[in-house]
Amino acid sequence: MTTERGKRKTLVGVVVSDKMDKTVVVKVDHLVKHPVYKKYIKRRERYKAHDEQNTCAAGDKVLIVETRPLSRD
Asked: How many domains does the chain fold into?
């Protein structure tokens, strides 16, 4: 994930749902260290991403880029 000034944030994830029109649900995994036990825990986050041509299918690995809001979600 890039956080430089003037750059858009990018995330890599896997498409888990493509049932909506022009929208896909992407699951992004993060590893975070537990504050007490120091073990790494896998955290998942789900994002809705715009797919204008409906080309993505479930299971595809995709790169999503931060942009202005295109819908309520």
From this structure: 1
